[in-house]
Amino acid sequence: MKKILDWKFWIGIAVSGAFLFLAVRKVDFHDVGDAFRNANYWLLIPSIVSNFIGLWIRSFRWGILLRPIRRIRMGHLFESTVIGFMGNNVFPARIGELIRAVVLGRKARVSKTAAFATIVLERMFDGATILFFLAIITGFLNLPFPGWLRKTSVLSAAAVVALFSFLFALKAKTDVSLKIAGKMLGLFPEKLRLRILGLLKSFVEGLQMLQNWKFVAVTVCLSVLLWIFPALSLFYSMLAAGIHLPVASAFFLLVVLCIGVAVPSAPGFIGTIQLISVLGLSLFGVPQSQSLTFSILYHLSQYIPITGLGLFFFFSEGLSFNKIGSVT
After folding, report:
1. Residue 63 domain boundaries
2. Ramachandran area for residue 38 (φ above 0: left; ψ -120 to 50: alpha; else beta)
3. How far apart are CA 243 and CA 245, in angstroms?
4. C-alpha closest to that of 12 among 258, 195, 271
5. Model pLDDT for residues 267-288, shown as the tens digit of each residue
6. Is 134 a domain residue?
7. How many domains does the chain have?
8. pTM tops 0.70, yes or no
9. Is the separation of the CB atoms in 57 and 223 below 8 Å?
10. What is the pLDDT of residues 249-260, one digit of tens each?
11. How many CB atoms lie within 10 A of CB 154?
12. 100 lies in some domain
């Protein structure tokens, strides 16, 4: 993990710095101060609650994905999920996803590779759900959507379909897929080749849910339900900042943020959330100072509770970042 942190950390810092500069370069900080003074901070409470409900549903959905491997207690799933999101807030390169798999493997005694495979599946369902929301939004919101958003949505849809197809093929034709992988790895040293093939076999274990269409259907429904709550969290944060727009605007902003945070950035997506918020809300005619105020209120109201609870769970388990780093 150290090598990843070394170079991706500095790339993320540079990108976040550039995004933050673009977000604030034309802002009137006097107006920002007025926006903060006039903000309704009580509305951040339902924003935080909505976010944690979303995390709870995410944890439950993860349990569905893992059920063909092992039935895991909801408490273990929720704690591991919060720890993973905390890891994304304090480490670059979404290391939190690896930390989440490691923690659950330790708590529930499941293969870390299989657990990570279910996280890959989870993110694919997330991507498909976000694209579903995007299709609805572009169909019902009469807005001058930028060309890059439409192009990105098409490319993302193609990537999701391709990845789902690959994983279904990997699970349905495991022996053939592993044989092809073995030939492709033929130039590697035998020890490394066998290690990679062993990881792929463990990875396939985490794809067992794809054989059960009932589990797939439940996962799809949970994915749609899950992403409603982050949108509500955004909506309440907008109200707190004095931005009164339809709920559909919060779903639009959610889609744009999900696309934006895919870009490398500093831990916690600093700068990225600010720029995307300013650009996204500008389509609704929201002043830049108010959009920036919203982005800071929303960011802090999500970052502080999740990071704090994640650190509490992390250290309550007797874990340390050095111990986690040695196995990720």
Report:
1. 13-20+29-108+211-325
2. alpha
3. 6
4. 271
5. 889 999 999 999 999 988 999 9
6. no
7. 1
8. yes
9. no
10. 899 899 889 888
11. 11
12. yes
